[in-house]
Amino acid sequence: MKKGVVPALAILGILLVAVGAPGLAIAVDKISGKDIGPDNPIYGIERAGEALQKAFGMISDEELAAEREQEATYMEELAARYPERAAEYRQEAQNMRQEAQKFRTGATGAEPTRIPGR
């Protein structure tokens, strides 16, 4: 297990009891800052926190787009570091960039370009 995961999970357990699951997810997202990447065990909780913040208007589409871009860049770094999983990491990076584009489209209110006949 990675160094620091056990204390982090203990803190998450205390937060869960104190603020409930939705509060925990938001707290993890706020506390973690930019330190939690897609390969972190609590990444899913952070993403849930982002979804809750979006639902309550606490985070903008542009901020979410920037986070996905940062995560995509991190996945590209992982692809370079671990060639045996490079294809998987690059696919995930591409998915994150597409998600970022969807957030940006939502932020501007612009419709994506449509190809005639599709």
What's the gist of this structure?
With 118 residues, the chain is mainly alpha-helical. The chain has helices at residues 5-32, 43-55, 61-81, 86-108.
- Residue-averaged pLDDT: 78
Number of distinct beta strands: 0
Radius of gyration: 17 Å
Percent strand equals: under 5%
Please report the number of helical segments: 4
Q: Percent of residues in helical segments?
A: over 70%
Shape: flat
- Uncertain runs: none
Q: Supply the helix-strand structural class.
A: mainly alpha
Separation of termini? 48 Å
* Overall number of domains: 2
What does the model show?
By secondary structure, this protein is mainly α. The chain has two domains: 1-59, no CATH class; 60-109. 72% of the residues lie in helices and 0% in strands. The protein is built from four helices and no strands. It has helices spanning 5-32, 43-55, 61-81, 86-108. Helix 1 packs parallel to helix 2 and helix 3 (61-81) packs antiparallel against helix 4. It is flat and about 40 Å long.
Topology:
Elements: H1 5-32, H2 43-55, H3 61-81, H4 86-108
Helix pairs in contact: 1-2, 3-4
Please name the defining characteristics of this protein.
mainly alpha; 4 helices; 2 domains; 118 residues
